[in-house]
Amino acid sequence: MPTTARFEFDEAEHRQALREAWKLRPLSWFTTAIGIAWSGVGLWFGVLRSWSDEGASDALLNALPWLLLGAFFLGLMPLLHLAQARQALETDPSLNGTQLRTVDDVGLHVVGAGYAPSLPWSELVRAVETAHFFLFFQDKRLMQYIPKRVLTDVQRDELRNLIQAHAPEIGRPALAARSA
After folding, report:
1. Which among 127, 109, 137, 131 is positioned nearest to 163, based on CA atoms?
2. Cα–Cα distance, 115 to 26 (Å, whole number)
C-alpha cells in the first residue's frame, strides 16, 4: 500500500534533515575533531606550557587565536547547514509550495514545483529512519526526506514495511532506528 506525505518546505526542518544526514556519514565528525585537537595542541604549546612565564594578559592574547580556531571548527558544520538551508529555496525552485512524497512498490516519487522524479528502489543507495525523518539517499550526499511529523503511526509502519520489502539491504537501518 503506498504511503503519501504532503508538507510545506520549512527551512528549520530542512536544516535538521541535513544535520541528521550528516551524522549518518562515516567519519563526519573527523574534521571537527581534528580542528579542535589542533587548537588544543596549539593552545598547549603556545600558552599553557609557559603559563608561569607570562602574565595573565599575555597568556590571554596568546590563547585567543587558538580558542577562536577551536570555536570555528566546532561551529563549522552547523553554520554550513544553516547556510545550505537558507539558500535552499534560491538554489532549488522545486522546494517552493507543497511537497508531495509517495513511497510504493515501485520506489520513491517526489513532486515539487515543476519537479517530479520517480526513483525506483534500484536507484536508491540507502534508506534510513532517524528520530524525525525517513531519509532516502540517491547517492552519498543527495537525499530526499519525509518528515515523520506529517505521517500517522500507521503510515510510519507501512513505510517501514515498504522499505523492508523492496530494499532489505538498505532498509535494515530503518528498522534499527525504529525505537528512536
Report:
1. 127
2. 30
Dist. CA 159–CA 137, nearest whole Å:
15
Q: Residues near 38 by Cβ (< 8 Å), separated by ≥ 6? A: 69, 73
DSSP state of 152: -
CATH code 2.30.29.30 region(s) in the chain: 3-9+94-176
For the record, the C-alpha cell of 57 comes out as: 594578559
In tens, the pLDDT along 86-117 reads 888 788 878 888 999 999 999 999 998 888 88
Q: Taking the model in full, what pTM does it have? A: 0.73
Place of cell 520513491: 108
Per-residue pLDDT band at 177 (split at 50, 70, 90):
very low
Q: What amino acid is encoded at 170 in this protein?
A: I
C-alpha cell at 117: 522524479
Q: Which is more confidently placed, 42 or 156?
A: 156
Instruction: Classify domain 3-9+94-176 at the CATH class level.
Output: mainly beta
